[in-house]
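Q: Structure tokens for this one, please.
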Amino acid sequence: MKNSTAEPAARGKRIGVVLLQLGGPDALESVEPFLYNLFCDPDIIDLPLAFLFRKRLARMISSRRAPHVQEFYRKIGSRSPILKLTFRQARALECELQKNINAKVLVCMRYWHPMTEAVVDELRREQINRVVLLPLYPHYSKTTTGSSVNEWKRVSAKKGLRDIGVSGVEEYCEHPLYIGALVRNIQIALARVPAQDRSKVHLVFSAHGTPMKLVRSGDPYQQQIIRSYNAVIREGKFGLAHHLCYQSKVGPQKWLEPSLTQTIEGLARERVTHVIAVPIAFVSDHSETLWEINMDMRRRAKEMGIRYFDMSPALNTNPMFVRALADVVLQKVRA
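A: Here is the predicted structure, written as tokens:
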């Protein structure tokens, strides 16, 4: 990437790029307050008159779920790796952006530290002239990117942050470099399969699910997931059976289907022996990949008779993914 791709005026300004991410507990004792923050979010719990009881409901749900959730965090090191991995992504992105613009990349977590108030304060200290909000969610949903942007607006208004221009990236679900990074990681996983068995592999693309109520309200997340899935299949030319499913359901509402569990059960009934799971909506490793797919589902798949189960690597600091992030930022800066 050449420096000439950035406008001269943009190179003279100090650009703050804020990575918006979910966050995760940094210790077992952080699980319950993390869950409380999650279920206190008005973009998550949006029932009629919910403002009257949201905090009480969040307290009840988080206290009940915490012991169970702590168990699978205990299996992946007693903390989420998402903060460490997101800081690595931030450093890699900053190095890439510095080829073109004077950029400072900051990490902003929605439900655990560093949270929005701390990041807004840091922007002031860093004397940033302009901010680009960059969600580490390639697919837009009201409950992810929408929630983080709403929180940014609330905190910015509270702190009187009016002297810094802010623009935001909504989605990049079909960005060629993002798709290429996913294809490359699938190729890495396929290379681990003995050559004589590769034709037996079924690729199972697993995205985080959402309630059907959200889909019916017009949330674009599912359609963007499908667009990414189709683009990866088209670009990868794998010549293998492939499936799209959803995971991580919480609560009694009907969620997107088929679920990851339903998909693996169906493949086992069809006597499929080789599966590679592809975490399509996750850009770094955390509990949904490390525990839910790579440990729990791996164990269950084996019990169902699937002899070979693997997961393609998460994107993390995949160079193509970092370049995709840099490109969407530069597009915003030049706009």
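A few notes: Strands lie at 14-21, 102-109, 130-135, 165-168, 201-208, 241-247, 274-279, 308-311. The mean pLDDT is 94.
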